[in-house]
Specification:
The protein is an all-alpha fold and 210 residues long. The protein is built from seven helices and no strands. It has one domain. 36% of the residues lie in helices and 0% in strands. Helix 1 runs antiparallel to helix 2 and helix 1 packs antiparallel against helix 4. The longest helix is centred in the middle third of the chain and has 19 residues, at 111-129. It is globular.
């Protein structure tokens, strides 16, 4: 089903976050819930990978969105404003990621865990690529994306922001499926565990607590 009212709210929040008008905390607090439209859960869980582990992120100044982040967020908003159904099998992208630099700090003790996590991420990504064009997710095909009238809505940052390095996430990006890590970090490796998304009873990759 397409929940038009809540999709429109979510699209506005994504664009506001992209343009630095609201923080990541604002987006999370105001995100529409209690809907059977799976794209709302899916986009929320993927946008979570844009957050800072230690503080609310507002995409201005040093924390401004990179060109790739702006492109991705614009595409998510364009899909939310479309009339297309969400056809991907997976809608919960909260889960496990790599341990990054902690592998080194642990003198290699975490390497087996890190390897196992990355292997699982690669398997999930391969399965999703059998369902559609993952490079234009949440669209399933390049044709659908190209037909979207909103896919060029990329507002460029002010001149003062050009050349500044945007904030980079505190975990290692193990997959380029969405321009970000496919699955977020292990609680305990990087500390910031996401909230449990509403309406999903699967426990596959969901952290046990926030």
């Amino acid at each position: 089903m397409i929940d038009r009212e809540k999709r429109d709210v979510a699209a506005t929040l994504v664009r506001q976050f992209r343009d630095g008008e609201i923080t990541s905390d604002d987006l999370e607090t105001d995100w529409p819930t209690r809907s059977d439209d799976k794209v709302l859960e899916a986009v929320e869980s993927v946008v979570w990978s844009f957050y800072d582990d230690h503080r609310p992120r507002r995409m201005i100044g040093r924390d401004a969105a990179s060109p790739k982040e702006r492109e991705d967020l614009t595409r998510y908003a364009a899909f939310l404003e479309s009339q297309l159904p969400y056809d991907w099998s997976k809608s919960n992208f909260y889960g496990l990621g790599g341990c990054g630099v902690l592998v080194i700090l642990s003198f290699g003790l975490l390497w087996p865990v890190d390897w196992w996590i990355k292997r699982g991420n690669a398997r999930i990504e391969a399965e999703l690529r059998q369902e559609g064009d993952l490079d234009v997710w949440p669209f399933t095909s390049r044709a659908d994306y190209d037909r979207s009238p909103l896919n060029t809505d990329v507002r460029f940052p002010p001149i003062a922001e050009i050349g500044r390095q945007p904030m980079s996430s505190n975990w290692e990006r193990n997959s380029t499926a969405f321009g970000h890590e496919l699955l977020p970090p292990v609680p305990g490796c990087h500390g910031h565990a996401p909230k449990a998304p509403s309406g999903d009873t699967s426990q596959g990759f969901r952290p046990s607590a926030r």
